[in-house]
């Protein structure tokens, strides 16, 4: 008799976005003509840049010709893309990587979701709260999260580390034993970053305790300030303890194109039952070669164009466009007296709801009084209660119109 | 302290292709000018068809325009592709499916590798021998295979069902309890098929024993004979017990483009610890929405072009090209007195090695005397010993040249 993976039954419904959709639909049915502006979802809206578009066309043409057609490519990605990633994203910042340390994939969500497979089933997982839900859910599915406690609204097997205005969104080191630590900087949902000094504390902690840090850096391209680390490998010794995830999704508008990469340094080890060190690079390589078949050649040609001189200028314009939105939102909300976080090195603005409103109360207020949809902070975890996320990914026009509407609210 | 998933240590080295590469390299270094023809790897060589190419270009153009740009798509795939899949691949054969029963993905290898996640860790897995290695390895990684026995060359936790010339490559039903059954038809590596009557035995067995059949049908497009089932759902009751995997890789030359789909019928159930039936469709949907982010929009537009009238004609020509190769190889080898299987409804020819040679002895003979690289059958499992796989995916010219060389061998 076929039995299911019972851990799936511990998953909580994807309450957040279902509830948002429900409230939005209800409002629309009661207000049929309403012109709703969404600053909720973390998805780009600007088209692909010309350098990428012309390379994608060239890739398609190569695949149409017998002489240049390519079938299965390397599961790890083509050298031409890996070499340019290393050159521009790492060597340019003084970090050296070998080609076999970079694994091209079809998305950071996939890699971040799959990476836990190479670790033991009894690993203790630490996440920040608020948190990107995939870190938690992928471990629930694998049986590492224990039971969900409806009172605490937390899994009893996960270690949650709070970040909020009171600690300046700087997480404290764990006070109990953990094995795997998910860090996301620039952060989704808060839009905040960690300084190199703060990041060093985590690297040192991981080295002292033989932990592995899973460092999600999908929003790296949005870093504007000089002193914010772009890679965890800027911290000495990080290659011994950290896997880094990067994506073309937000960097180059690839959310609908699908390309990302993951760095697993050769120095990085974890331990078998007998305490022998095993290279995680070998395990991830085995995982990817067994259960993955590489990214579309056409897509990889398009991704490589991001690094040409023309490509980099266009990407910078793209990021500038969204970051101008972010500044408008930040400044606009701050001028109304709201407490605003993020939005300086990330496309997310994390605001404290006014007058002690709950996240959902503020959601309803924005929806009904300004016809704006955002994301209630509590949807990302208990410590998100009383916060609200707006994104800078809308069009300039919609961002402006949304701010004008918020300006007219009584907050 | 971070510990590894110890099950990975039970994986055997990917001995087969490493050993092939090693012997080939050695031969090349000793015979620098040798003109080697590869009929080994199961990868296509013909370019994408014009209908697909023009749709891919159109998809790229849509992504370059603000008005038609698409960001994140549905993790399950776009309706336009799912609807056309259902219409042409199923409804045309009298099988009705709902849109939420089809999940578009970036490859059958991914889906076949990931599907085991939704089943309990103590599931007993049955595979045919010889077998496509991903079925076994993905279960080894999940801890379902037990230990590898170097003497039997098998995992002690896997149920192996032999297929060979003596049983006409028709597998017998399991004689011990199993929960999950991997079937692959048209078969890789043997190129053989099952009749509807034989397939019905498996469906009935699965219904009687509440098993789930994982039906890999990646080579469906190569079926030429009238009475060979194209889908397991042609068998009554199969929707209650079977998941079906299909791919554009071999159908339309998409090995380097990456698109496939998996059908998980709503009727299909497995059981929780208390014996309650749970819809596997819900679990797979949750798996994909949590750990996958959909296939490139551009790729999905290209895949949909496969089903246009023009597209279908071009795909038929593509399949005919390879199947003409297959017939040439079959007939050529048979005329030399070799026992030949497959190659009628599949692009693989599975031959019995002459004069009792082992798979590797025949490999060496073909390599050194005819400069042809194929795949030793024993690499797919113990019952592959004494067999050898050739593929029809080469160019016409190379296939012809290879046959001329084999013709001159003393066999």
Note the topology.
The structure is a homodimer of 411-residue chains.
Chain A: H1 15-30, E1 37-38, H2 50-63, H3 79-90, E2 102-105, H4 108-114, E3 125-129, H5 133-141, E4 148-149, E5 154-155, E6 158-162, E7 180-184, H6 196-209, E8 212-216, E9 242-247, H7 249-252, E10 260-263, E11 269-271, E12 277-279, H8 280-291, H9 297-304, H10 309-335, E13 340-342, E14 348-352, H11 359-370, E15 372-373, E16 375-376, E17 387-391, H12 396-407
Parallel strand pairs in A: 1-15, 3-6, 3-7, 7-8, 8-9
Antiparallel strand pairs in A: 2-10, 4-5, 9-10, 11-12, 13-14, 14-17, 16-17
Helix pairs in contact in A: 2-9, 3-9, 4-5, 10-12
Key traits:
homodimer; 411 residues; alpha/beta; Aspartate Aminotransferase, domain 1; Aspartate Aminotransferase, domain 2; 2 domains; 7-stranded mixed β-sheet; 4-stranded antiparallel β-sheet; 12 helices
Spans of chain A of at least 5 consecutive residues whose pLDDT stays below 50 are none
Summed up, the domain count of chain A is 2
**Secondary-structure element order of chain A, N to C:** HEHHEHEHEEEEHEEHEEEHHHEEHEEEH
Q: Gap between N and C termini of chain A, in Å?
A: 59 Å
CATH homologous group name of the largest domain in chain A: Type I PLP-dependent aspartate aminotransferase-like (Major domain)
Query: What is CATH's topology name of the largest domain in chain A?
Result: Aspartate Aminotransferase, domain 2
Radius of gyration of chain A: 22 Å
Number of strands of chain A: 17
What share of residues of chain A is helical? 25-40%
In the CATH hierarchy, the architecture of the largest domain in chain A is 3-Layer(aba) Sandwich
With strands numbered from the N-terminus, the spatial order across the biggest sheet of chain A is 2-10-9-8-7-3-6
Molecular shape of chain A: globular
């Amino acid at each position: 008799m076929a039995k299911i993976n019972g851990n799936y039954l511990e998953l909580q419904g994807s309450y957040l976005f279902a509830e948002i959709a429900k409230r939005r639909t209800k409002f629309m049915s009661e207000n049929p003509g309403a012109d709703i502006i969404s600053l909720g979802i973390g998805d780009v809206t600007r088209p692909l840049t010309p350098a990428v578009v012309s390379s994608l066309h060239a890739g398609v043409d190569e695949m149409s010709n017998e002489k240049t057609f390519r079938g299965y490519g390397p599961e790890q990605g083509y050298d031409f893309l890996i070499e340019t990633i290393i050159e521009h994203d790492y060597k340019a910042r003084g970090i050296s990587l070998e080609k076999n340390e970079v694994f091209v994939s079809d998305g950071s969500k996939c890699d971040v979701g799959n990476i836990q497979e190479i670790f033991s089933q009894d690993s203790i997982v630490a996440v920040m709260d608020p948190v990107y839900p995939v870190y938690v859910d992928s471990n629930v599915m694998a049986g590492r999260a224990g039971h969900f406690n409806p009172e605490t609204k937390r899994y009893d097997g996960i270690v949650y580390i709070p970040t909020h205005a009171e600690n300046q969104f700087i997480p404290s080191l764990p006070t109990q034993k953990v094995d795997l630590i998910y860090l996301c900087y620039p952060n989704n949902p808060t839009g905040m970053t960690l300084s190199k000094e703060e990041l060093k504390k985590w690297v040192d902690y991981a080295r002292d305790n033989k932990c592995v840090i899973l460092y999600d850096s999908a929003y790296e391209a949005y870093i504007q300030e000089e002193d914010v680390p772009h890679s965890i490998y800027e911290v000495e010794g990080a290659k011994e303890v950290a896997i880094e995830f990067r994506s073309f999704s937000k960097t180059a508008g690839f959310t609908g194109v699908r390309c990302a990469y993951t760095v697993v340094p050769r120095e990085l080890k974890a331990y078998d039952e007998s305490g022998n060190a095993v290279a995680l690079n070998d395990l991830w390589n085995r995982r990817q070669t067994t259960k993955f078949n590489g990214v579309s050649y056409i897509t990889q040609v398009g991704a490589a164009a991001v690094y040409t001189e023309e490509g980099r200028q266009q990407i910078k314009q793209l990021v500038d466009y969204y970051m101008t939105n972010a500044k408008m939102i930040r400044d606009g909300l701050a001028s109304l007296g709201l407490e605003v976080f993020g939005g300086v090195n990330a496309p997310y603005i994390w605001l404290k709801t006014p007058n002690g409103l709950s996240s959902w109360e503020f959601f309803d207020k924005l929806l009904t009084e300004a016809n704006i949809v955002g994301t209630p902070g509590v949807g990302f975890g208990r410590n998100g209660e009383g916060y609200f996320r707006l994104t800078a990914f809308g069009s300039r026009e919609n961002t402006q119109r949304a701010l004008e509407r918020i300006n007219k609210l009584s907050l």
